[in-house]
Write a structure and sequence with these properties.
Chains A, B: Acts as a magnesium transporter. The structure is a homodimer of 486-residue chains. Chain A is an alpha+beta fold and 486 residues long. The first copy, chain A, is 60% helix and 8% strand. The first copy, chain A, has three domains: 160 residues, MgtE N-terminal fold (Alpha Horseshoe); 120 residues, CBS-domain (Roll), CATH 3.10.580; 171 residues, SLC41 divalent cation transporters, integral membrane domain (Tetracycline Repressor, domain 2, Orthogonal Bundle), CATH 1.10.357. In chain A, the strands form three sheets. Chain A has a four-stranded mixed β-sheet with strand order 4-5-6-7. In chain A, α1 packs antiparallel against α2 and α18 runs parallel beside α20.
């Protein structure tokens, strides 16, 4: 949350009321809204900030941005031209909340981190909650990490180092290592007094943990329960035994799924011996949920983890891989067509109609595949309902295949004057939609079984199937029907 | 959370230890784990439940499932064959937590709601937090809604009715109407005592609100802050002034974006006059975040809001729309090809290669389009950075177009023995990738400006562009290059 400086004495609407002297009429300065109605950083506010940076007017910038939420400062930084970002951070000085860095795109964050001296960084990062500090540190290379860690107090350094030692994408990297743990025999009153007296509490927390003398987790108590209970009650009487708990080595995707499923707001992280080592918080988990849903979308579209702030070369290279893979698919489809050069030369109408068959199959397969990929990700598709879902997909494919066959058959007959051509395309579309439904379901399932992320790999295989079968069925049936040379 | 019956005295691992008598050796019954290692309901547990349903053994079922989290019961219900779902709910009786219904797919929920008597439903729903009750009621038709509402106590009925009166997809439908509001002059001690004495508190909450005598919101205090503060301190001294607040009529998507941006766990909902009417909670917002990310994925793949439990007919109809729209696109592409029947008849190799040009353009466009759709949804793409992003997309398209042109040009030359054909396909692929990049970005942007959801409509237009331009460029350049008849 935002810290320090209250440059604006009192805010009324978008107006800052500076009370220079209690006897004078307050001086009123119009501050434009930070965001426009679409939720983007407003042009007026950005112009003021850019003017402040140009004039190196630190007090003005602190007045404008020192009090903003870190998410607003982050969006502001991203809205600035690249060469004004670090100057803004420098000018804000102590008023810059380093939690802002956690809200930035990775490329922007790294460029800021590279351009700030490590002692400034160490000071800023040292003030953060441990989960935020780890989030920032984990992207740095080992040397830069060490340079910052070395300047932190011993206990902070050890804590952060331990979190960084957990594998990437593990719960250990997400967890907050400051939390409150009390023994079960304490009373509610003792617990409240303890919280009032302890200095080094996390910024926010929603539950406290109950541990045995070996620091093994034995329960948790949500804060609202503490507040509703009489001071004399023992913690052991109100604690939730066996709360939902995660190992620090658990995959963050599994953790996110459990948070979502059980509507959790926070949860304990324990080590292999069951000892409490951290606290997982919903705000970090929301980011994971968002990223996971987005990963499927990106995977299906053949995108890596590119960000809008990446450079042209990085983006081009990451997208090229996908295009090259698809080039092979397209080459395979072309090979199938080349088998039918003679029939096509004899009846050019085939060349006109053949892409329709392939593309309708591709569209139908993409629908099924998207459903299958998401159902696998959310664990809705299981070995138990696989047959039921397959039957459903085949029936849907058949129904829609029939409808398209009637429409396309009629259209092709009218266009070419050849009822036979209408029959051929109708048969081909029914066949291709059937395979589209089956492949759209079974390919993601098979990939998942093989340990490959179905979101990333499915569409290449599925498109290959619908292209190859589409061209083969249409051109093959046509050659047979019209007795064309092969 | 799960209520009532503790059929298993003490749990050790997956084992239930029933202490029949303190002097006897405890009787140990093996209960299989509810979920298997992939997080799906385990086959063993399901078999036990199915046996219990077949034997109509209510006590056994209550012992197995009465104590589970509502999310587990929901997954269990969905794992059961359709005709065993309502019997399970009936057999669980009072031990069935109606919050379970909020975790079910809509089709499953509706079929259960239709098969339970309205007085049973009213009793179960009456015990829920208001946000859960509204979630269940909003899917019912007016008559069924009224039948349940009529059996609720007056105050509950009025509260639920008011929430239901807010528009669909508004914050008002998501909010919890039980919350704690105190005047600013109360002390922390008074507030804690008030919470200890008030009966009708929400199941969970993370902050309390501060209101003026007109019940207008003036601040909020997170629970951890209350617990850290001395009893004598006034609430007004520790409250957050101007907390992030939403109107009950706000769109839930905007609310979700703000929760995510500002890492909120709960927030107040106010009416048009600024009076506090409800509390928005992160667990409901997580569902919205998930749904919104998924909506983009579904939209791009041409899927409506189908669920894996929908019937074949419903699914087929909802997918057909998309296929028919794409049929028009494919028809347009075929029309372009038909303009070049003469050149194709003269050189059949063109028919073999032309789908490659169209499909590479389609793939590149999908990449750009997916980035654009997500960047629009997350407000990362703005009028300000549009030109920068466009320039980047054009450069990426150009770089990848060049690479593909070299590969395809060489391949086509080797295959056909005609260097000219290699040149033609190289030129065509560069042109098509350029248009793919431009259309992939500008079409979603234009659709958003026109007030159409870019996730749903973009890909039809984008595919049309890459198909039409791909075929036109390749066949047109070939006809010119080789002087083919038109």
């Amino acid at each position: 949350m935002s810290r320090g400086g209250q440059p604006c004495g009192r805010r009324e609407g978008g107006t800052c009321v500076t009370e220079a002297d209690h006897n004078e009429i307050p001086e009123i300065v119009e501050i434009p809204a930070v965001r426009d109605e679409d939720g983007r950083i407003s042009a007026d506010f950005l112009a003021l900030i850019e003017a402040g940076i140009a004039a190196e007017d630190a007090p003005a910038l602190i007045g404008l941005a020192g009090d903003l939420h870190e998410a607003d400062v982050a969006d502001l930084i991203e809205a600035l031209p690249e060469d004004e970002r670090v100057p803004l951070v420098r000018l804000l000085g102590d008023e810059f909340d380093y939690a802002t860095l956690t809200e930035l795109d990775e490329a922007v964050r790294l460029s800021i981190l590279e351009n700030l001296p490590s002692d400034t960084l160490a000071e800023g990062i040292g003030e953060l909650d441990s989960d935020d500090a780890v989030y920032i540190l984990e992207d740095l290379d080992a040397a830069d990490q060490a340079a910052i860690l070395d300047q932190l107090p011993y206990s902070d350094r050890i804590q952060l180092q331990r979190s960084l030692d957990y594998p990437e994408d593990s719960a250990g990297r997400l967890m907050q290592t400051d939390f409150i743990a009390v023994p079960p025999f304490w009373s509610v009153g003792q617990t409240i007094d303890h919280m009032r007296e302890t200095e080094d509490l996390p910024d926010t927390f929603h539950e406290i943990f109950v541990v045995d003398p070996g620091f093994r987790l034995i329960g948790s108590v949500p804060l609202d329960k503490i507040l509703r209970t009489k001071r004399t009650t023992k913690i052991s009487e109100i604690m939730t035994e066996d709360p939902q708990t995660f190992k620090a080595t658990d995959d963050r995707e599994d953790v996110a799924r459990a948070f979502e499923r059980y509507n959790l707001v926070s949860a304990a992280a324990v080590d292999d011996a069951g000892r409490l080592v951290g606290m997982l918080m919903i705000d970090d988990i929301v980011d994971v949920i968002q990223e996971e849903a987005e990963e499927d979308l990106r995977g299906l579209a053949g995108l890596g983890d590119e960000e809008i702030s990446d450079t042209v070369l990085v983006t081009a290279r990451s997208r090229l891989t996908w295009l090259l893979v698809n080039l092979c698919t397209a080459g395979l489809a072309a090979t199938v067509i080349s088998l039918f050069e003679a029939p096509i030369a004899a009846m050019v109408a085939l060349a006109v109609l053949m892409p329709i068959v392939a593309s309708m199959g591709g569209n139908a397969a993409t629908q099924t595949m998207t459903v299958a990929v998401r159902a696998l990700a959310t664990r809705e598709l299981t070995a138990r309902n696989m047959l039921r879902v397959l039957r459903r997909e085949v029936l849907v494919a058949f129904l829609n295949g029939m409808t398209l066959a009637v429409l396309l058959g009629t259209g092709a007959t009218l266009w070419s004057g050849l009822p036979g051509l209408g029959m051929v395309i109708a048969m081909a579309i029914i066949i291709n939609l059937f395979f589209a439904g089956v492949a759209g379901l079974l390919i993601p399932v098979a990939l998942e079984k093989a340990g490959v992320d179905p979101a990333i790999a499915s569409s290449v295989f599925v498109t290959t199937v619908t292209d190859v079968i589409g061209f083969f069925a249409f051109l093959g049936i046509a050659a047979l029907w019209f007795g064309l040379p092969l």
